[in-house]
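User: Is it possible to get a 3D structure for a protein together with its bound compound? The compound here is benzoic acid. I've pasted both below.
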Amino acid sequence: MDLKQLKAFIAIAELRSFSAAAKVTGISQPSLSRLLKQLETDMNVDLIDRYHRPLQLTTAGLFFYDKIDALLTELDAITHMTQRLSAPSKGLNIGFVPSVLYGLLPEVIATFKQQNADTEVNLKDISSYQQIEALKSGEIDVGFGRFAHQDPWIQQILLRHERYLVALPKAHPLAEVKEQRLLDLANSRLILYHQTHLPGLINTDSIAADMSTSARDKRTKQTPKPEAASVTDSVTEPLLYLFAQHGITPLRTSKVSDLQVALGLVAAGEGITLVPASLQVMRTKQISYQRLIHENVTSPIYLHTLKDFIHPKVNDLLTAIYEIYEQRGITYRRQQFV
Ligand code: BEZ
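Assistant: Yes, that's possible. Here is the predicted structure of the complex:
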């Protein structure tokens, strides 16, 4: 079995056609066919059912495709990493999710640049999950995101938890209520904007239920069901998860493409949403931002990097972040990548 055979098999399996695979790979059809036959003979297994059009994978072929595809993706990542180890980039390529741009990111970058004038910094806005691929491919060296990743290639430091605020139209009946309860918001249309979903079962550390509030919820009309804990396991939309943690399902929701659009709709009186506190400077003429009584309804901020390749400037970046936290009196736990 060799790499050429495996790549031929993957192309045929994905495109379900020898001619399409030949076009994409630049390998002639007879050669592709020969490579697949050699692989099947080596393994003594039929991987592709050639009698159907489009071609179909056999049950064994489907299993093999799944495993080999993951293996080849990993091989690609290893190749990229090895190339970077031999010639590390001089600049620091930083990925970030848009919501951290409204918080401390500009100040962090300015401080880092002041202290590391010789390092070129490149910033790239990129969603949490795309950051994993971008780290593996070398497109970015570090990423700021709001979700923990359970990927064997990635390590992360939790920088801090930022509280969620409710964003309500100024004309909303609850707009002036200073301490809001999720339960009271359940009748308003909730505008969802996250593109990233939580994995099925997540560490509830950052958004664990506020037990005193849950007890209060129980006394009101939307009583949490006994099976509420298991219900949250299947809720993967981040804002709905926060409500589900308190046994609450918002009556109406709308889904939009990003945070800016969500705040635009709130400003237009179309509904309410929850945003990290640093967003409270946006559209303040039309939007009222209020605190939630639930202390643990927070949005974490993580710094991600590869486990096996830590850019030499990453710990300087951390130093700049902690310096700013000190100046602003922000609570954090100092950590370092090793
Ligand atoms: C923060 O708001 O804590 C933060 C945002 C971006 C980068 C680092 C820290």
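The chain has twelve helices and twelve strands. The longest strand covers residues 154-169.
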